[in-house]
């Protein structure tokens, strides 16, 4: 049986020392081993940005996509091979700016994949510009006078869009993050896990210390019920979205694969797709 060590490869990450993405990588590897996966059971699909490199740092199937398109690729992989555990990953710019349309529709589609967003509230790869997750007044190279736009409340957005699994964690809490990824993998539907992953090079506001001072762990909230969507929304609003843990889960809603008509139990990837000449001629005759 594989352990987290089997999901390591010899590629050394080139993230800045102290980057929160190191913990996200470790949590994915630990979660994959803990739930009993083998490296060839897992596909990690990544987007653009510093976090987009993560698919090359994990010993599994991997694909490094283009700007904002991680979710169409990840959904296609899952549809072609339903036996694979598919994890999509990217940053807040990739998922909540250019890729936001795909994020919303993946949520409502409820396809059985796990989407992990490394949220550092800044564009790190391009050397520090404002992202959709930057607060009002946030000063960067693109907003030297301070951002005048409100930060996107992504967890509230996910609940509004009908997400069936919504969670949030902090990269310095490896134990909680690993457990949430395990739960996301087990969930039969679309799982969104947003991770506060500080950029130590360009974001001097949303630091590790800042998050430790401002985050509320849902495990410490008395009588919190992640099955209650209204409670989840109210709690997010009360804490300005700065909560960690399982925010909401709907175990009753069927996944996309369970609803689509004619979706073969045998993965497309393992089917014989060769056509004999007679069948080919029969199909071509339909267009003559």
From TrEMBL:
One Pfam family it belongs to: TPP_enzyme_C
PANTHER family per record: 2-OXOGLUTARATE OXIDOREDUCTASE SUBUNIT KORB, 2-OXOGLUTARATE OXIDOREDUCTASE SUBUNIT KORB-RELATED
Transmembrane segments: none
Cofactor: thiamine diphosphate; Mg(2+); [4Fe-4S] cluster
Record flagged with keyword Oxidoreductase: yes
Pyruvate ferredoxin oxidoreductase beta subunit C-terminal domain sequence ranges: 199-264
GO-annotated biological processes: cellular respiration
Alphabetized UniProt keyword annotations: Iron, Iron-sulfur, Magnesium, Metal-binding, Oxidoreductase, Thiamine pyrophosphate
Metal-binding as UniProt keyword: yes
Taxonomy of the source species: Bacteria, Bacillati, Bacillota, Bacilli, Bacillales
Protein known as: 2-oxoacid:ferredoxin oxidoreductase subunit beta
Record organism: Halalkalibacter oceani
Gene3D superfamilies tied to this protein: 3.40.50.970
InterPro entries xref list: 2-oxoacid:Fd_oxidoreductase, OFOB, PFO_beta_C, THDP-binding, TPP_enzyme_TPP-bd
Domain Thiamine pyrophosphate enzyme TPP-binding stretches: 48-195
Listed GO MF terms: iron-sulfur cluster binding; metal ion binding; oxidoreductase activity, acting on the aldehyde or oxo group of donors, iron-sulfur protein as acceptor; thiamine pyrophosphate binding
